[in-house]
Amino acid sequence: MKKTVKGLSIALAGMLLLAGCGSKESSGDTKQGGTEKEKKTFTVGISQFAPHPSLDAATEGFQKALKDKGIDVKFDVQNAQADQNNTQTIAKNFVGDKVDLIFANATPSAIAALNATKDIPIIFTSVTDPVGAGLVEAFDKPGKNITGTTDNHPEATKKTISFITEEVKAKNVGVIYNAGEQNSVVQVDEVKKLVEEKGAKLVEVSVANTSEVKQAAESLVGRVDAIYVPTDNTVVTALDAVIAVANSKKIPLFVGELDSMKKGAVAASGFSYYDLGYQSGEMAAEILSGNKKASDIPVELPKSLKLVINKKAAEAQGLTVKEEWSSLGEFYDGN
Fold it and tell me: Is 242 domain-assigned?
């Protein structure tokens, strides 16, 4: 009887020893990234300034990049509906919620985010002039907690204006923009310079909100040979109104990005905003994974650029498409 009890005691001690060893090994696996380790879920606040195709595409690309990088993210997507006051409220709410990162889609959203926090990392996109907007000191010197991508490729506007003045032979070019959008003012200044260099004249019309866009377009009838719309959030949101005027009055319409071109403009020299958002998402992944800080990542330009001509829009706006234009870019047929 005593031998049996002794034997059981030895066996029980051995089992406890093995259990202890097994527990320690499992704990070690967890610390080293084993299957039992819980993956952290990050919260990313997305502040999009307005609902229109380019910004929508940028947000979609941003989210896809984080997914492709294997980052587990919960997105809080907010749209300011083109109201700058809303951008401030959204940014303050993100700070109050202590999100891990803010994605600011367009200049007003980026400015509001930076005004709200100097600690939470901010990635911006769809920003025309990040230096002029006060977001960064220089492309290679981003701020303490902010960096991102710009939608102002140095050659994009130049290519489009050259096409308008040299191929369409426009002598008077109308431009519609919101003077309250800093990114638009920068673009219009550049357009004016390029137009005048070609011996043409720029006719400017400014709007304060989307309800004024149609009237602004109508005011250009009889005064211009072509209309150019930059990447202005207010005007692009109401672009259908400009397209309607351009079609009915046979005035060729040109825009600053490809998504708007597809809606019904003759041509644009640009890039995919989805791709630009994806670039921004890759930056965010580096920050959330702990590999880099925002201050370590330079501001990036779009990685691709092309001139695209919309044949259907050209015909609708009274412009004869020349096959030799294919040497300048590529044709878009609506597919």
Answer: yes
Question: What dihedral angle (degrees, nearest 10) is formed by the CA atoms of 58, 64, 67, 72?
Answer: 40
| Interval 274-302: pLDDT, tens | 999 999 999 999 999 999 999 999 999 99
Q: Which helix (H) or strand (E) holds 146?
A: strand 146-150
Q: What's 257's domain CATH number? A: 3.40.50.2300
Q: Cβ neighbours of residue 230 under 8 Å, at least 6 residues apart?
A: 157, 175, 177, 184, 187, 188, 191, 255, 256
**Residue 53 and residue 143 in one domain:** yes
If one counts the domains in the chain, the total is 2
Tell me how far the alpha carbon of residue 116 is from its chain's centroid: 20
Domain with 86, as residue range(s), is 42-151+272-296
Are residues 174 and 146 part of one domain?
Answer: no
In this prediction, residues 199-216 reach a mean pLDDT of 97
* Mean pLDDT of the region 234-255: 97
Q: Is residue 2 part of a domain?
A: no
Q: Quick one: 167 and 73 in the same domain?
A: no
Q: What is the CA radius of gyration of the chain?
A: 27
Lookup: tokens for 134: 């006060």
Residues 207 and 323 reside in one and the same domain: yes
Going from the C-alpha of 232 to that of each of 19, 162, 249, 256, the distances in angstroms are 66, 20, 22, 9
At 281 the pLDDT is: 98
Residue 224 CA to residue 270 CA, distance in Å, equals 24
261 and 160 in one domain?
Answer: yes
Residue with tokens 């259990």: 19
Residue 106, both tokens: 């367009």
Do β-strands 226-229 and 172-177 pair in parallel, antiparallel, or remain unpaired?
parallel
CA dihedral 302, 306, 311, 315 (to 10 degrees): 80
